[in-house]
Amino acid sequence: DTAVSQTPKYLVTQMGNDKSIKCEQNLGHDTMYWYKQDSKKFLKIMFSYNNKELIINETVPNRFSPKSPDKAHLNLHINSLELGDSAVYFCASSQLWGAVKSQYFGPGTRLLVL
Amino acid sequence: GQQLNQSPQSMFIQEGEDVSMNCTSSSIFNTWLWYKQDPGEGPVLLIALYKAGELTSNGRLTAQFGITRKDSFLNISASIPSDVGIYFCAGLVTSGTYKYIFGTGTRLKVLA
């Protein structure tokens, strides 16, 4: 079974559209994350939830909104997509926030905005 | 966004050689993480460090938390072709004002 899964794997869409990326972990972890990796491979954390509470909310546009319906899911909703949103988005989970001894990433969602 | 300075940016090495890379910052962190990313995959956590001066190994990998808390080092001994990939450091502050900042990455290529 996949530990951290993301859907979709690829997402091609037009500027101005609204889209969501889903993430699920079956590891029983308390903490989940969203990251963005740009075309130069630079990684940046966007959000982190610990026990469904938002603990990191980096300076990302407010067009990006995370939603955590339960500890196993952290979805990312993006409004009014822009060309610069094209990137690979990774979800991850870890057992604890602060003592990250085990952390697992999803396979990534490759978003292309046209 | 802010990125930590990671060096070297890329390196070619011969199989069997040892590799060293480091990550430096002007800020203090209380946790350092090292990741490896293979092409087309998500990062994989290699080593986590929680205490200044800590030295931790994971197989042929050894990482150290710098005593100033502003840097960290990763060594790979006796490199093999599957060590190819991008290595990222990340510095975290896990209390008070949270921080989680990645290094710029070291691209490692191993020549057989």
Notes on the protein architecture:
The complex is a heterodimer of chains A (114) and B (112). Chain A has 114 residues and is mostly beta strands. Helices cover 0% and strands 56% of the residues of chain A. Chain A has no helices and eleven strands. In chain A, the strands form two sheets. In chain A, strands 2, 4, 5, 6, 9, 10 and 11 form a seven-stranded mixed beta sheet that branches. Chain A has a four-stranded antiparallel beta sheet with strand order 1-3-8-7, with no helix packed on it. In chain A, strand 7 (64-70) and strand 8 (73-78) form a beta hairpin. The model of chain A has no long low-confidence stretch (mean pLDDT 92). Chain B has strands at residues 5-7, 10-14, 19-24, 31-37, 44-49, 55-58, 61-65, 71-76, 85-93, 99-102, 106-111. Chain B is mainly β and 112 residues long. The N and C termini of chain B lie far apart (37 Å). Chain B is built from no helices and eleven strands. Chain B is globular, with a radius of gyration of 14 Å. In chain B, the strands form two sheets. In chain B, strands 2, 4, 5, 9, 10 and 11 form a six-stranded mixed beta sheet that branches. At the A-B interface, strand 5 and strand 10 of A face strand 4, strand 5, strand 9 and strand 10 of B.
Q: Which residue ranges of chain A are poorly predicted, with pLDDT under 50 across at least 5 consecutive positions?
A: none
Q: Could you give the count of β-strands of chain B?
A: 11
Distance between the termini of chain A: 34 Å
* Distance linking N and C termini of chain B: 37 Å
Q: Give helix % range of chain A.
A: under 10%
| Largest interchain contact | A-B, 25 and 24 residues
What is the SS-derived class of chain B?
Answer: mainly beta
Quaternary structure type:
heterodimer
* Class inferred from helices and paired strands of chain A: mainly beta
Count every helix of chain A, treating DSSP H or I runs of 4 or more residues as helices.
0
**Mind telling me the C-alpha Rg of chain B?**
14 Å
How would you sum up the global shape of chain A?
globular
If you average the pLDDT of chain A, what whole number results?
92
Average predicted confidence as pLDDT of chain B: 94
Secondary-structure element series of chain B: EEEEEEEEEEE
Shape of chain B: globular
Major β-sheet annotation of chain B: 6 strands, mixed
How big a fraction of the residues of chain B is strand?
Answer: over 45%
Strand content range of chain A: over 45%
